[in-house]
Design brief:
The structure holds two protein chains of two kinds. By secondary structure, chain A is of the alpha/beta class. Helix content of chain A is about 35%, strand content about 25%. In chain A, the strands form two sheets. Chain A has a six-stranded mixed sheet, sandwiched between helices.
Chain lengths: ~250, ~280
């Protein structure tokens, strides 16, 4: 089984006015190519910290992260979908999605073509020329997802991307994410505090406990995609993970 | 009951009530007599004939033309220097440390206070003499009137609000947007041009608006000082000395209108960028 990311004994400590506290770790984990790894944990368990370390936005205080280079010979490419509001408000949806391609010096014709393709995939191509403030919260997160998918990252990190949306929209976008993952074979690390979201999306689920963040439980969810939220198997997983989760909170 | 707010268009006219009352008061005052002020009609007469030669020192239009030319040059220089300086100071700690002490010390020094110094330094040179156009010396040509000392104090008056506004704009770029740019693979240059600058744009325009307001105040004050013989400020002072209060008041009206026009113009330009940033969720 190919490995998309390997983290060994990752640790992160924050310092606040002299006093330090351990936010994470030590945590070791592998992400397999083509899987959705759901990282489930209560607020403050360091799951966002974990993603920020992987994305290279922060330096770990210990341990290491290895991301094998992609077969195309380019360096490792990681994308991060933020919780919300990370679209550039001064650019249209299309220009937002084209931005990473611009950073990679793609020609403007290719940029437009590829960006439209991805907007089509997430289902908001008709809003290509709208500005973020003209979009609903759900649409904005689709656009943010498109902006991350557009350069075909080897690893897609999602930090509670649907956490601020209403339940209905959130469910719909979970389905969309699962569908896109099946179509593209993308490798995704999906961080959430919502048990149902984790069970719906994750091929595997890691449960993190807090202070400091550490892995409490690791499960492979043996249900076929697309998953039925009302099935017996789904409910069983929900209950089983809830019992672990309750103990943590 | 909200009588004025409910009658939409009528409510908007409410702001004109006080100026109109003032105008009426002025008019009635001049009708009764016993005031040195000319009637509104005589002031209006001056305003309606802006091309007429006044006091053997050019027309109202000429005065406005000279003053605005000075502003365009002085404020233009201020923007040309202020925006890049603000961008550099906002994005680099090194440059901020290098320059901010100088800026903070220089900023409170009023531009008018520098006028005598700048006259000594630049002597009588104007853009015309700088360009070697000595043949214009004794003609009425705008290049003659663009004294370098005057341009310098306009620059001084305008540059600091522009630097500070731009710097403020760059420094208030949201960290989330910088991190997004970074994870999306943007280098320093692309992040600067596509994230920092557009994000700072509303503050840059705010600085420009403050700057041009300052420039307009500085130019009028400077033109009223001895040593000048052109511009709307000069006309204002000269008409006062000759007790031509109709011309003097016409100048005041023109100065107010142009000042408002400058501010509104820049506001309209900055509107789009402001709208985008304020609607961000």
């Amino acid at each position: 089984m190919e490995i998309a990311l390997q983290a060994r004994r990752l640790r992160k400590r924050y310092r606040k006015e002299g006093a330090g506290f351990d936010a994470l770790g030590p945590v070791s984990l592998d992400v397999r190519k083509g899987e959705i790894l759901a990282v489930l944990g209560p607020t403050g368990c360091g799951k966002t910290t974990l993603l920020r370390l992987i994305a290279g936005l922060e330096k770990p205080d210990g341990g290491e992260i290895a991301i094998p280079p992609s077969p195309s010979g380019e360096g490792p490419s990681v994308a991060l979908v933020f919780q919300q509001g990370a679209l550039f408000p001064w650019m249209t949806t299309l220009r937002n999605v084209e931005f990473p391609l611009k950073a990679r010096r793609a020609s403007s014709g290719n940029r437009r073509k590829r960006a439209m393709e991805v907007l089509e995939m997430v289902g908001i191509s008709e809003f290509a020329h709208s500005y973020p403030y003209q979009l609903s919260g759900g649409m904005q997160q689709r656009a943010a997802l498109a902006r991350s998918l557009v350069y075909d990252p080897g690893l897609l990190l999602m930090d509670e991307p649907f956490g601020s949306l209403d339940a209905k929209t959130s469910q719909h976008l979970q389905e969309k994410t699962a569908e896109i993952q099946r179509r593209t074979g993308a490798t995704i690390v999906f961080v959430t505090h919502d048990i149902e979201e984790a069970v719906f999306l994750g091929h595997r689920v890691l449960v993190l406990g807090h202070r400091p963040g550490r892995i409490e439980r690791e499960e492979a969810i043996d249900l076929n995609h697309p998953r039925d939220r009302l099935s017996e198997g789904f409910t069983r997983w929900l209950l089983s993970l809830r019992s672990t989760f309750e103990r943590l909170v | 009951m909200k009588p004025f707010e409910s009658r939409g268009n009528l409510g908007k006219l409410l702001g004109f009530l006080l100026p109109l009352a003032l105008l009426l008061w002025w008019y009635l005052g001049t009708r009764v007599g016993g005031t040195v002020l000319p009637s509104p009609g005589r002031v209006l007469d001056v305003l309606l004939h802006p091309g007429r030669e006044l006091l053997a020192s050019g027309s109202l239009l000429w005065g406005v033309y000279v003053s605005i030319s000075r502003i365009v040059l002085g404020f233009g220089c201020a923007a040309l220097v202020g925006i890049p300086a603000g961008l550099v100071m906002g994005s680099s700690i090194l440059y901020r440390r290098l320059l901010s002490l100088t800026v903070e010390m220089a900023r409170p020094l009023s531009a008018i206070a520098l006028l005598p110094l700048s006259i000594i330094v630049f002597k009588g040179s104007s853009v015309a003499s700088l360009l070697g156009l000595s043949s214009l010396r004794y003609t009425r040509h705008v290049l003659n009137e663009l004294g370098l000392g005057m341009i310098f104090i306009l620059f001084w008056g305008g540059v600091f609000p522009i630097i500070l506004g731009t710097m403020q704009g760059v420094r208030s770029v949201r960290n989330l947007h910088l991190e997004a740019a970074r994870t999306l693979g943007a280098g320093r240059m692309l992040t600067f041009t596509h994230v920092m600058v557009p994000s700072a744009l509303p503050d840059i325009f705010h600085g420009l608006r403050l700057g041009i307001g300052r420039c307009w105040m500085v130019i009028i004050a400077a033109e009223m000082l001895p040593g000048t013989n052109s511009g709307i400020g000069y006309l204002l002072r000269y008409s006062y000395q000759l007790s031509r209060y109709d011309i003097m008041l016409a100048c005041v009206v023109v100065i107010a209108l142009i000042g408002a026009l400058f501010a509104k113009g820049l506001e309209a330009l900055g509107e789009t960028s402001l709208v985008l940033r304020s609607k961000e969720r």
